Amino acid sequence: MNPAPPSTDAHRTRPNIILLLIDDLGCRDLGGFGSTFYETPHLDRLAAGGMRFDNAYASCPVCSPTRASVLSGQYPARVGLTSFIGKVKDEGRLANVPFIHYLPLEQKSIASALRDGGYQTWHVGKWHLGDEDFYPEHHGFDRNIGGCHFGHPKEGFFAPWGIPTLEDAPEGTYLTDHLTDRAIDLIQQRGDTPFFLNFWHYAVHTPIQAPEPLVEKYREKARRLRLDRMDPLVEGEYFPCIHKSDRRLTRRVVQSDPVYAAMIENLDTNVGRLLQVLDNEGIAENTLIVFSSDNGGLSTAEGAPTCNHPMREGKGWTSEGGIRVCQFASWPGVIPAGGTCRDNVTSTDFYPTFLEAAGLPFLPEQHCDGISLLPAMTGSPALPDRPVFWHFPHYGNQGDSPSAAVIHGDWKLIFHYEDKTVELFNLRRDVSETVNEAARHPDTRDRLLDLLENWQRGINAKIPGPNPGWEQKLKRPRVENNAHI
Questions:
Q1: Cβ atoms of residues 337 and 317 within 8 Å
Q2: pTM score above 0.90
Q3: How many Å apart are CA 290 and CA 199, to the nearest integer?
Q4: 172-300-22 Cα angle (round to 5)
C-alpha cells in the first residue's frame, strides 16, 4: 500500500527501534491520556516529546490476534487467528467459530524483515502466539527472553514465575522489573549493529499484583480522594456465552483500584529506567520508540481493575473501550515534540512504519493491511483516507457477543451476529457510543455495512452460524441479553 521509502536524512543512520506493547492497557490508563488516579510521569514525558495518536486502535479486542497483526502487518481475520490462543470452546446462541492457535511460519514477520535488513532482533516478554514450534526464535528473533505460549504469568508476577523461557530470579523478584533488567542488558551489550527490541510486557494483565509499598501509596491516595467511599463496581446483565451464563458482568465505573494503579506506576518507572539507559549509552536520539497496547483495558469482568470512561466497555468488546488504545511515538530530532495525529491508525501499521524508518523497502504482499505512519510522524499531510476493520466472531470472556466493526472517518458501524442488529455512531460527537444513528443516517449505515461485508468476503472471514440446542446448555434460565440495544 506504500511506495518505496524516500531517502531522507532520517535514514542516513538507521535507527534502533523499540516497540513497547503493553498487555491490556486501557486508553485512559496514562496520566497524559486522561487518568487522574494513575501516575505515569515518564510515559507522559515520552509522549509529550513525540507524536500522540488520538485515534489509535488495536486490531482486535483481545491479545493474540493483535500480536499476530503487529508482526504480520495483516488483519487477524486474514491470518486466521481471531481470538486469544488457548481460549475454551466458546458458544452461545451462535456456534463456536474455529481459528488457528499459532502465528503461521509462512508469515514473514517484521522481525524477519528487519533481520534481513541488517538488524539485531530481540523479543522480551509475553508472546502468546503458539507453542514451542512457533516461539519468537522461529519468527525472526535472534533472542527470546520470556516469550512462550503463556498469555499471562500463571504463577503470578513475583518469582518464581514458572515461565519456561525465562530463568527464575530470587524469590519475590517482580517480573516487570526483571524483564526490564534483561532488556537493559541487551542494549548495553548491543555492539555497533542497530537493534529491534520487541518489548512486550506481561503487565498489566491479570493477576493484578504489585509491590506492596506502591499499593499502599494508592490505598492512601484513594482515601484522600474519597474513592474508597464509593462502590466502583456495578453488576450488569448475564454473560451471553454458555460457559459463563450463570454469571453477570461487573463493570468498573471509576479508576480506583490501588493494586492496578501500582502496576501502572511500576511499569512507568521501568520505562523510565529504559529511557535513562538509552541516554547513558548516547543512543536516545537515534532510537525510534513506539508505545501501544494489544487491546483496551479490562473493565467488565475478572475483577474489572480499570475503567475506560468515557469509552464504552473494555477488553473483549468491539466498543471503543475494547479497541481504542494509548499510542505515541518518539524519535528525537525526527518526530517533532508535541505533535498529534487524529487519523485512524491500527496495529497493522507498525510493520511498514518500521521498514520505512529503517530505510528498507516495503513488502506490500506481506503487510498488505498496513500503511506507514512515518510521514504523519514527520509532519507530512494527513494519512490516506481508508476504513479500518475488525472481525471478532467469538463470545468474549468479558461479555460481548460475536460482532464485526468498521470505522471510516468519524463514523463507526458495529454489526452484531446474534440478532443481526447494526449500530452506527459518529465518534467525533459521540465517542461514548450512546446514540445509535443507524436509522437516522441509512445511507452512511448501508455504505459502511457494504464496506465491511465486502472486506469480509475478500479475506474469507469465518461467519458464526446458529447453535442448535443452545438453550438446553445454559447454566441459568434463558434471559435476553440487551447489552448493545
A1: no
A2: yes
A3: 10
A4: 50
pLDDT in tens, 69-92: 999 999 999 999 999 999 777 899
309 secondary structure, DSSP code: T
Paired residues of 466 in beta bridges: 94
Instruction: Map 281-297 to HEC letters.
Output: CCCHHHEEEEEEECCCC
CA–CA gap between residue 250 and residue 236 (Å, rounded)? 6
Q: Which three cell numbers stand for residue 157?
A: 508476577
- Give pLDDT tens digits for 328-349: 999 999 999 999 999 999 999 9
Residue 251: CB atoms within 10 A of its CB come to 21
DSSP string, 198-238: EEE--TTSSS----HHHHHHHHHHHHHTTGGGS--EEEEEE
CB atoms near residue 314 (< 10 Å): 34
**Mean pLDDT for all residues in the chain:** 95
Question: Is the pLDDT reported for residue 42 higher than 60?
Answer: yes
C-alpha cell at 363: 513488502
- Do 449 and 463 meet the contact criterion of CB atoms below 8 Å apart? no
Strand ranges (DSSP E) for 305-410?
328-330, 339-341, 345-346, 388-392, 403-408
Grid cell listed for 365: 504482499
Per-residue model confidence as pLDDT tens digits over 429-460:
999 999 999 999 999 999 999 999 999 999 99
R_g (Cα) of the chain, nearest Å:
21
- Rounded to whole angstroms, the Cα distance separating 163 from 161 reads 5
The pair phi, psi for residue 404, each rounded to 5°, is: -140, 160
> Residue for cell digits 440487551?
482
How high is the pLDDT of residue 367? 98
Alpha carbon distance 269, 252 (integer Å): 25
pLDDT band at residue 160 using 50, 70 and 90 as cut-offs = very high
The mean pLDDT of 121-143, rounded to a whole number, is 98
With a cut of 80, say whether residue 259 has pLDDT above it.
Answer: yes
- Cell 461467519 locates to 463
CA 234 – CA 476 distance, rounded (Å)? 20
Which residues are bridge partners to 445 per DSSP? none
Identify the band that residue 382 occupies on the pLDDT scale cut at 50, 70 and 90.
confident
Instruction: Tell me the pLDDT tens digit for each residue of 403-428.
Output: 999 999 999 999 999 999 999 999 99
Q: How far apart are CA 368 and CA 351, in angstroms?
A: 10
Count of H-run helices and E-run strands, the chain? 12, 16
Q: Where would I find the H helices in 402-441?
A: none
Sort strands 287-293 and 328-330 into parallel, antiparallel or unpaired: antiparallel
The candidate with the shortest Cα–Cα distance to 205, out of 272, 145, 260, is 260
349: Cα separation from own chain's centroid:
13
Q: Contact at 8 Å (CB) between 345 and 56?
A: yes
